Amino acid sequence: MPRTKPSMEKAAWSGRIVAVQPRIRLVRSFDERHHTYQGFVLRVDGTCGEASGEFLIAVGKAAQDKHRFSVGMEVCGLSNPVPDPRIETAGFYKTSGLKVLKVPTNEPSSGPPFLGVPPDLETYRSRGHRRLDVRTYESKCSTCIWGCRMPVEMIIDHWNPSKKRYRFETFCYGPKSCSFYRAGPPRKVPGRKGMSYTEENWVDEDATLNRGLDD
Description:
- The protein is mainly β.
- It has one domain.
- It has four helices and ten strands; from the N terminus they run E-E-E-H-E-E-H-E-H-E-E-E-E-H.
- The strands form two sheets. Strands 1, 2, 3, 4, 5, 6, 7 and 8 form an eight-stranded mixed beta sheet that branches. A two-stranded antiparallel ribbon has the order 9-10.
- The mean pLDDT is 94.
């Protein structure tokens, strides 16, 4: 996707929303993990500055509560390029001047993929997620409100927290019965002195224990 070099000047953008997903960061330290629920990411097909294409725009919880962004809306705003793409899924953040230019009249499909107005962040937190195969996410789930691509910061040595690695992981917060869902291989987390931790299936099962098959 087109990106603009980081600067203090906000870029003006506008276009049609093709996806809305939660903006969540994940910090891993061997077998421990911590999530930060920051807001939402809009995938916008349009223009940003002098470039055209699809852009990922981070917006806050309050902005989502106010505008109830969903697929098909035409919107515009001003955003800063992110200074460190290792810790952001979006290419732009600190968004202001948001305006909804057009609201679609047709109802979103019943899914999958699910394209309505996403729930609030507390709902995502309470539902828990399962790992989602990267190829499945890219081919079928990148527009679904239950899909999420998270930037992951891995603390390799808890005695030396400055030693870190970064990557992205994909997750699903959606119904366990979704026909698109594929878990993919278990994920490994590097640790100190060449050790590694494998996150087995029981972690996902435990995280979503409160939900039934169709929840």
